[in-house]
Amino acid sequence: SKRKWGKSKPPPEGFDYIQPVLDALENELRDLVNEPNGNKRNVETTWPIHQVSWQRSRYIYDMFYVHNKISRKVYDYCLKNKLADASLIAKWKKPGYERLCSTYVINPKNYKFGTSSICRVPIHDRSPELRDAVDPTSGCRGCASGRGGRENIFGNKYGQQLAAVQVARETAKADEERKRAEARERAVAAGADGAGDSDTDDRSSSDEEDYGPAPPPPTENVTAAAGEGDSETDSDESSDEEDYGPAPPPVADSKRGAISSDAHNEENPVKKPRSD
Hints:
nucleus, single chain, mainly alpha, BUD31
């Protein structure tokens, strides 16, 4: 429930986003504490508690400062309810301590000769026999900053990139859902185009079945009709000639000839001889 972590008031909005991972870390811690010690040394029995606590702090830190997935209210709520180590997070903000496993390993009072833990020495600066050495208190294999550092400083199940893994999975899932949505849209568009073509074909075929094929263009009919009229006229003229003989020449032409002759005589009159 939402009141699982808070004793005074429920968590703020947005806490549900990180709660599943926090619950998983709590269950992992419970299983590690209850498992038999076997042949472990006494110092090794406390390693799981420290490591899970570190992973939980790192997860909350990355979600707020690196990936911006939680609000300031959720972050402050986690610090107030001891879900994250505030002193350790304060060290992570300083150069050289970005991967610090614990504030215990940098306290000179906890080691002989006023030094720090072996895990604070970079791997490339260690002697061959100390390359695989771990801190006896935290079980850290090397949390020094710089090149050559270990990706998983504890070598355990969850590692130190819980937030990055969760964000990467969410991004991949969102991309997959987007691609599926685009594929569905393309399929719907293709189906709509196919349905439109089939409807047009169906209408054309149904018209042919009801009314027969479409008639030819009207221009061809007009030409054919004109040809038929000429043939009828020719046949009528030939039948008239057979019954009544050839037709007389046009009257208008003879009149025009007479008129032309008179006009010619008027223009060129014939001179008659004078009789004395």
